[in-house]
Structure formats: structure tokens, C-alpha cells
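In response to the reviewer comment on reproducibility (Comment 2.3), we provide here a single inverse folding case reported in full, input and output, so that an independent group could reproduce the run without further information from us. The C-alpha cells appear first.
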């Protein structure tokens, strides 16, 4: 559905994005994460056709980003989305329906169905009198008014309260389950981890790692084994009547089992703890990693 090859954007002598390559399949949620200034927003704007690449190629459903037909297949939500504050949600969405040449009856049906799903009741109140969360819901509804196949969302829940944030994240998941292809960025890595099929980590303009979450965790994270024994073993701590020793290899697990047996005890439980996406991100997006070649991890999806 999305094909990106050797994408590059320069501003004078500064390369905001350098040689990014990835693809996203239909119905997939693809996350782009990285520190501030990594090139995430520039990449998303190039996908949406709002910024012209210096080099490289972007195809959305087989169409170039400067093709009018592509614009009708895509919905874009920028991080900052100023609205026409004198308009109401209904008049605002009707205006964009007209821009996309959506028939009036169809636009009316879509806007009400989407606002119902987004639980937005105040549809005739001026947008300037609405909360940030309400405005964000209207902006999301705008991105869907043309019933796009591909959604490009830049920080969809930025600055919102936890309840509204969770609502929007759940709604984004529902859209993917309906077959929408979604590319988005977010600073909250918990949200990325909870809904993304694959992730690209950017740093200093380059993709330094990409792949399915579990593969990234295997490659760049660390597995910790918490081994519980009935007797004290070296480096263990007492916990709820047992002793816990935390190790990072199966060889150390077996060593713990042997030591416990020698002391007249046994291993009664082993619990595995995987690195979070945040820990993987910190391992990968360190200073200077933008000069490295991107690490491609796993084989799930055409862009892995």
C-alpha cells in the first residue's frame, strides 16, 4: 500500500531525512519514533505530499504523492491542526467534504457516523469554544471525510488528557482492523507498543532500526529471567517467602538450578521479562547512530 525508497529531504546543507526506505501493507499500523529533530514529521509530510522530497520516491497505493488521485486515497492529521474556529464541527466537515467532491448526502452520513464513533455530541457549537480533545476529534473526523485507504497521523493524541488519549488510540486500532493502512508517530512509546505491527526508529534523519516489535526486542533488547528458589543462592533476594535471582541467560538459569539443588532446594518458578520498546529505543537511538546503516530486523511484512 505504501512504498518508500531512498527518501531524502535537504534544507540547504542540512539533511532532515537521509535515505529512508520502508513499506507498509494494507491494514498494517506502522509507527515512526525517534527523538525530537530525528526527521519523523518531515517524513510524514513527504508521505502526505505536503513536502517535496529532495530525492527518492514515495508511492501510495501505486500513485505518486503529487497525483491528485493519491490525495483522495489519503487522510493526514498533523501534530498541530488549527481549525476554523468560527465554524461548527458540521459546517467544518461539510466544507472539507466539498473540497474532496464527496456528495452532500454521503458527506453528511460520514460525518455523523464518525462523530458518533468519536463520541462528540456538541456538533453545532463553534470550534473556538471547544476543548483541545474535542477539536482533535473533529480533526480526526476531517481526515476520514473522504474515506481514505491510508492514514498518516502525526502525534494523534499529543497534549490530550489520559481518557481522551486512550479513546483516540483505541479508535486508531479500530480503523486498522477495518483495513485502513496507518502510519503514525508518537512520543508515548507505550501507545506505539500497544497498537503497532512494526516500527521504524529514526535518529539524526536516518532509520537506524526497523521491524516487528518482537524482533526489535530480540535484537536490541534484553531478556531477563527471574528465577525463584526455595533456598538462598548467590545474588538472590528474599521475596514472599522465596528467593529471587535475576539473570540474563539460560546458562545462568541452569547454574541457579544446580546451586539450589546442591543446597537442598529447588527452582519453583521462572518468569521472563522482555525489554520494553522504550528500552529498545534508548539502546538504538543513541548519539551518532544516525551515521550507521539501518538495522533491518525480522521478516514480517514487506518492509521488514
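Designed residues, in position order:
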Amino acid at each position: 500500500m505504501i512504498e518508500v525508497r531512498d527518501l531524502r529531504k535537504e534544507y540547504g546543507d542540512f539533511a532532515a531525512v537521509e535515505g529512508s526506505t520502508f513499506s507498509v501493507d494494507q491494514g498494517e499500523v506502522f509507527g515512526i519514533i525517534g527523538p525530537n529533530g530525528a526527521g519523523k514529521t518531515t517524513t510524514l509530510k513527504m508521505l502526505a505530499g505536503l513536502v517535496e522530497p529532495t530525492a527518492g520516491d514515495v508511492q501510495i497505493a501505486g500513485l505518486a504523492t503529487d497525483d491528485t488521485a493519491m490525495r483522495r486515497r489519503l487522510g493526514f492529521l498533523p501534530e498541530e491542526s488549527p481549525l476554523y474556529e468560527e465554524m461548527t464541527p458540521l459546517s467544518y466537515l461539510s466544507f472539507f467534504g466539498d473540497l474532496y467532491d464527496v456528495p452532500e448526502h454521503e458527506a453528511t452520513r460520514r460525518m455523523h457516523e464518525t462523530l458518533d464513533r468519536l463520541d462528540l455530541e456538541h456538533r453545532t457549537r463553534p470550534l473556538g469554544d471547544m476543548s483541545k480533545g474535542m477539536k482533535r476529534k473533529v480533526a480526526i473526523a476531517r481526515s476520514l471525510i473522504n474515506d481514505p485507504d491510508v492514514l498518516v497521523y502525526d502525534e494523534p493524541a499529543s497534549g490530550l488528557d489520559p481518557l481522551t488519549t486512550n479513546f483516540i488510540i483505541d479508535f486508531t486500532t479500530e480503523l486498522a482492523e477495518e483495513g485502513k493502512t496507518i502510519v503514525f508517530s508518537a512520543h508515548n512509546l507505550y501507545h506505539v507498543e500497544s497498537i503497532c505491527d512494526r516500527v521504524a526508529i529514526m535518529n539524526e534523519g536516518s532509520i537506524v532500526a526497523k521491524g516487528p516489535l518482537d524482533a526489535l526486542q530480540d535484537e536490541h533488547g534484553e531478556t531477563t529471567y527471574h528465577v525463584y528458589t526455595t533456598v538462598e543462592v548467590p545474588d538472590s533476594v528474599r521475596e514472599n517467602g522465596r528467593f529471587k535471582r535475576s539473570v540474563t541467560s539460560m546458562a545462568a538459569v541452569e547454574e541457579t538450578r544446580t546451586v539450589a539443588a546442591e543446597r537442598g532446594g529447588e527452582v519453583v518458578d521462572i518468569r521472563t521479562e522482555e525489554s520494553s520498546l522504550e528500552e529498545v529505543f534508548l539502546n538504538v537511538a543513541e548519539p551518532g547512530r544516525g551515521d550507521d546503516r539501518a538495522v533491518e530486523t525480522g521478516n514480517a511484512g514487506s518492509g521488514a
